[in-house]
Design goal:
182 residues; alpha+beta; Nuclear Transport Factor 2, Chain: A; 5 helices; 47% helix
Length: 182
Amino acid sequence: MVIIIQSKSLLHSFLKQSNMKKLSILSFCLVFTVLFAVNATIAQTAAEYKAKIEKINKEMTRYMLEGNMEKQMSLYTSDAISMPSYEPMNEGIAAIRKANEEMLKTGMKITAFEPVTLKVLVNGNMITEIGTYKISMSTPGTESPMQDHGKYLTIWEKQKDGSLKVKIETWNTDVDPMSMMK
């Protein structure tokens, strides 16, 4: 009852005000409503992209563990750039494929990979993913797999069909390589 009386009182005082003041108040309310709606849409979109990226990361992990290079490369744009830790930059899908093939020729095999998406930032058709990883790799002549963990940044490009592909990726270890030599 008090709320209804107060609402009627607010409406009555609003109707008494000049047209210019009414327009200002309505404009403020409209701008506030639009900003609230846009912010909610962006947050929802980031959450949707995060779910989509996490699904792709699971596919990518499966392909890495299976050694399925073609499926793995299908998740990159043709002009993708990869900037691995302690290695030269690879520009284009052919260079990324070659670098992966060279790694496989050494006998190194990824035995476990766990990416964790921490943050997703949406900017038009480019989506930035920030995360952490844990990886295990076996190499010929070693008894137990090498363990590593670190952080990564991936920029995904939204394709015309709505899918996402890796445009730029970089990662680096949190493990001090000098400590492994001791």
